[in-house]
Queue: 3 jobs
Job 1
Amino acid sequence: MPIFKAVITAGGTSSRFGKNKLFEKIKNKPVIQYSADTFTDFGLEIVITANETFIDEMKNLFADYKNVKVVLGGKTRQESVFNGL
């Protein structure tokens, strides 16, 4: 049986928003966690590419997830996807 994985590119800084919108909460849950949970509900392994400014916070958020790995994103989306792959 093949192993399917998802790459979530979260390497931006949310500069126009003013703070990292991925950590903003909806119903007491960070937005990025909704995305990750959707993929884990389907049994997928996930790689999240994070900006170096937020990588520790992202790793802490997903520390209890066995199927989520957080890696450093790139300067562009293309680089972040490459790093995730």
Job 2
Amino acid sequence: VISPLFGILSTMVVQAGVLFLRRLGHSAFTGMAIGALCGFSEPTWAAVLFSLVFALLFNFVRRRTRLASDTVIGVFSSTAVALGIFISTLGSRSYQFNSLLIGDILSVEPGKIGLLA
């Protein structure tokens, strides 16, 4: 369902020379860690919300400073990964996000395919 969209987006990323879309995954990890810490049963929505905040904050900093986009992307993505690791191991708990971040083909339900569509 999502493969055609990635084909279109990857062309835009290569043409514009923007690595930003690749780095949103780092913010999604942090969003899932925040969602799990808050006790959400489905931390995916927290990942989407945090990725949106990450994107808006990135654009705000990029437009207000003279820094190159790649520099801002590097700082934001490394900060997001560090924050995600810190939150996911906070209080000696370790959340397992492998099935959400990497994917598990056996856990795909018809409702999730409909949501993607």
Job 3
Amino acid sequence: PNGAVKLEEGHVFSIEPGVYLPEFGGVRIENLVTLAPAPDAPGFMDVVPLTSSLFDERLFDQALLTEGERAWLAKYARMRAERVATYGA
């Protein structure tokens, strides 16, 4: 909300979650995404993945995920599988 640039349809940016553990190291993944109109929410935008890093779901604590987060992970896995089948890993 405090940014100088208004995000608009077609803008591309990265989402880079990471975790770093003292005395051990860390990992960061990066996915590029774009914005598109949300079909079910007029006036809102969806974040649409352009790249699809593999998530190791063994690292997720399922007890901490909401139903919405589980649904998003399932949708992401389907999208990634379709892309791999089409374009290769």
